[in-house]
Amino acid sequence: MNKLMRKIATAAFAAMVLTTAAVAKSAAINGEVKKIDESAGKITLKHGPAKSLGMDEPMTMVYRVKDPAMLEQVKVGDKVQFEAESADTGYTVTRLQKSK
């Protein structure tokens, strides 16, 4: 019985790890930089559906950035992958990197 419990626990742990990785990957949104406003700490991104934000349709939006240094890593026209969160003040990009 003890071996069976260990196998069940191991399988449950593996399933949890795989689910967590899938959720983290699904939070990434693919987009393109359309405008950068460094003085305001904002970026305009044209992107596909953003399921993590409840957006089912592609759109172009202005986002605040969590860290203004992110804006120095990209330029208009760059393809990017980003993560964002919703707050009372609007949407904020929490992670931003150029796509490969």
Which labels suit this protein?
100 residues; alpha+beta; 5-stranded mixed β-barrel; 5 strands
Q: Averaged pLDDT, please?
A: 85
Low-pLDDT segments: 19-25
Major β-sheet strand ordering: 1-2-3-5-4
Total helix count?
1
Report the portion of residues in β strands: 35-45%
Cα distance spanning the termini: 49 Å
Instruction: Please give the share of residues in helix.
Output: 25-40%
Outline: elongated
Task: Write the SSE topology.
Blueprint lengths: L1 H25 L2 E9 L4 E6 L11 E7 L13 E9 L2 E9 L2
Parallel strand pairs: 3-5
Antiparallel strand pairs: 1-2, 1-4, 2-3, 4-5
Structure, explained:
This protein has 100 residues and is of the alpha+beta class. The protein is 25% helix and 40% strand. It has a five-stranded mixed β-barrel with strand order 1-2-3-5-4.
